[in-house]
Amino acid sequence: MMLLAILLPFLSFILRGKIITGIICLILQITLIGWLPAAIWAALSLNNARADKRNDKLIQAMKDNRK
């Protein structure tokens, strides 16, 4: 998925269900200069989504451990 975020950033957003963000990223990606920021944006967004999932799992495990 990270390779997809770098090569086709707009598709990475669309596959994760962020349609509007994917369209904005596609518009940015169309320009040659905008492709690099779009790829960085998609990669950072993917890393943040993965971190959020990990944090949610940790929080849920801590809640379950208290019971």
TrEMBL record:
Location of the protein in the cell: Membrane
The keyword DNA damage appears for this protein: no
Database matches in InterPro entries: PMP3
Any one annotated GO CC term: membrane
Any matching Pfam family: Pmp3
Membrane spanning stretches: 26-44
Keyword terms: Membrane, Transmembrane, Transmembrane helix
Major localisation: membrane
Family according to the record: Belongs to the UPF0057 (PMP3) family.
Protein name, UniProt field: Iduronate sulfatase
Record organism: Chryseobacterium soli
